[in-house]
Write a structure and sequence with these properties.
The complex is a heterodimer of chains A (about 280) and B (about 270).
Chain A: H1 5-26, E1 46-50, H2 70-81, E2 89-93, H3 96-100, E3 109-110, H4 118-123, E4 124-126, E5 131-132, E6 135-139, H5 150-154, E7 158-161, H6 166-174, E8 181-183, H7 186-194, E9 200-204, H8 205-215, E10 220-224, E11 235-236, E12 239-241, H9 247-260, H10 262-270
Parallel strand pairs in A: 1-2, 1-3, 7-8, 7-9
Antiparallel strand pairs in A: 4-12, 5-11, 6-9, 6-10
Helix pairs in contact in A: 2-9, 2-10
Chain B: H1 3-33, H2 40-47, H3 50-90, H4 97-112, H5 115-125, H6 138-164, H7 167-175, H8 180-210, H9 222-233, H10 237-268
Helix pairs in contact in B: 3-4, 3-6, 3-9, 3-10, 4-6, 5-6, 6-8, 7-8, 8-10, 9-10
Classes of the chains: A alpha/beta (about 280), B mainly alpha (about 270).
């Protein structure tokens, strides 16, 4: 049967929006009207900075290009949401100091488990949070029997990474009996636990779980602080240059990913189930 | 006043005026030109932020006490070990050749390895062998790393001091019937040590700064404390504050070393 002409036109018209949408999606971020177009460091590319080295479970095998690991996966999901092809995601390495120094940055966003704080927000911009991290207590082999109570953990010899928000938390919430020792990075804290120079260290939960499972033999995550109950929850945000024009696009993308459940799916895939760790009372 | 004196006075005045005006010009140029740079405001707020400085300075001073403490117990041990190494390298008897060999190897190794590597290796490595607390403290082993490195330098300076005492003095003292030991203790060393005091002052100043390297293995001294503030406030001003505290100590020390050196030069003339 031959379709009548009006009907055929109607059918064609039905496909027009879809074809248009497809055309939009297939073009790169150069496409006019796209949120991120012209707002990135290199036009059409999305430059993401990570640590050097980048640690599991945030980035697998120090190879963010693979998209393996939580932060790497989030970066690619956000890029896709903004209409940037995976091939156009460029990775660079940066230290925290490079991220906050005044002047031009060499990245569009920087993802290294940066906790959003009011003071930092005055100097740089943060995206909406992509992860809420509870703080957790990792203890060395000598202290695995410590009860997860404030009174018990106070008397431990404490350590932490000096550049993280674990430090103020340690001083204000735990208030240890002896002066804590502070280190430059996670690897040094691990070395200090292994050398029995400290009993316990404060990390975000995924890092603590990883260290106890893989890095420090005989160590254990004895407890976590609820991320939501604390007055100052530790939320990770993508760090951007102050006044970044890209921030709105990133926030929209993250909101869409949260709404669709994609972000939760990525979290479930890469970050261990943390329900087995008791809350510290 | 003779004509010659008048002329000299005029010359002095003239060079004073020139020096003062050129200095004023340079300072003025810095004050006017630097803030004209497009990024100045950002640099100012992240490196020279008054509010941040006020907030962090008291704690930085507290942390500096840790530096002073580590310095205070390391410096005498460095002096002692340095002197012993220098004497070991100077041993004359053939039977003591192993001692000389040890002295040479010690200075070669600890002068050749970057301080931070020694701090890491000794600070994490030796406690990792399973020492009980408090003997695995990073304060102890970190200090040992500094002591080993610095005594290697200090030993070389002492050795140059020993060499600077003319050989004839040794010969003269020996001919008076003094033993080798007495010659070293009563004739050579007193002069040698005095000759190298200014150079050793420079080592003290360097040590004072390198104490901060212990922050890598845990102690929260001024550099680490400044780093904590830096990452919490996302501002580099605490580092500038730490630098000011260091300068307050090292500039007088440097001037004193200069003074000693000038005095020594005068005495030798």
């Amino acid at each position: 049967m031959i379709e009548s002409l009006p009907k055929r036109i109607l059918t064609m018209l039905k496909f027009v929006p879809i074809t248009c949408a497809l055309a939009f999606m297939s073009t790169s971020a150069f496409a006019a009207g796209h949120c991120a177009a012209g707002k990135t460091l290199t036009d059409g590319k999305f430059t993401v900075a990570t640590g050097n080295p980048a640690y599991y479970p945030w980035v697998l095998d120090d190879a963010p290009e693979s998209g393996q690991g939580f932060e790497a996966a989030v970066a690619y999901a956000v890029a896709e949401e903004m209409g940037i092809a995976a091939a156009d995601v460029v990775w660079v390495r940066s230290s925290f100091d490079e991220a906050i120094q005044p002047g031009a940055k060499n990245f569009d966003v920087n993802m290294q488990q940066y906790s959003i704080t009011a003071e930092r927000d005055q100097v740089v911009d943060f995206s909406a949070p992509y992860y809420t991290a509870p703080m957790a207590v990792l203890v060395g082999p000598g202290a695995v029997d410590t009860a997860p109570t404030m009174a018990a953990i106070k008397d431990l010899k404490w350590g932490a990474v000096g550049t993280t928000t674990a430090v103020p938390k340690l001083y204000s919430v735990i208030q240890p009996g002896s002066d804590p020792l502070l280190y430059g990075d996670t690897a040094d804290v691990s070395a200090a636990i292994s050398a029995n120079q400290i009993d316990a260290a404060l990390f975000d939960l995924p890092t603590a779980l990883f260290l106890s499972a893989v890095m420090i033999e005989g160590s254990k995550v004895i407890g976590q602080f609820s991320a939501d109950s604390s007055e100052n929850p530790d939320q990770f945000g993508m760090l951007m240059e102050e006044g970044s024009v890209l921030k709105a696009c990133i926030d929209d993308a993250l909101a869409a990913l949260t709404e669709s459940g994609a972000l939760a799916a990525i979290e479930a895939q890469w970050l261990q189930d943390s329900t087995g760790v008791p809350l510290i009372k | 006043m003779t004509r010659r004196e008048k002329y000299d006075a005029a010359q002095r005045r003239r060079s004073l005026v020139i020096a003062a005006s050129s200095t004023a010009l340079v300072i003025l140029a810095l004050i006017i030109l630097v803030p004209m740079a497009p990024g100045w405001e950002k640099v100012q707020s992240s490196f020279f932020n008054r509010a941040v400085l006020a907030k962090s300075f008291p704690k930085l001073l507290d942390a500096f006490l840790v530096n002073v403490m580590i310095f205070a117990w390391s410096a005498p041990l460095i002096g002692l070990l340095g002197l012993l190494i220098a004497l070991a390298r100077d041993a004359k008897s053939p039977a003591l050749f192993p001692l000389r060999l040890f002295g040479a190897a010690f200075t070669d190794i600890f002068r050749g390895v970057p301080v931070i590597l020694t701090v890491y290796l000794i600070g994490f490595g030796i406690p990792g062998l399973g020492l009980p607390r408090p003997w695995n403290s990073p304060y102890i082993w970190g200090s040992l790393a500094l002591i080993l490195t610095y005594s290697a330098y200090v030993a070389e300076i002492f050795r140059s001091g020993i060499d600077s005492v003319h050989h004839s003095q040794r010969a003269a003292a020996l001919s008076l019937g003094l033993s080798e030991r007495q010659v070293m203790r009563d004739v050579v060393l007193p002069q040698a040590v005095r000759n190298v005091v200014p150079s050793q002052m420079n080592m003290l100043i360097a040590l004072q700064k390198d104490v901060s390297l212990l922050s890598f293995i845990g102690p929260v001294e001024i550099f680490r404390q400044a780093g904590v503030f830096k990452s919490l406030l996302a501002n580099f001003t605490p580092y500038v504050g730490a630098a000011l505290i260091f300068l307050a100590v090292t500039i007088p020390a440097t001037r004193y070393a200069d003074y000693l050196m000038a005095k020594q030069k005068r005495e030798r003339r």
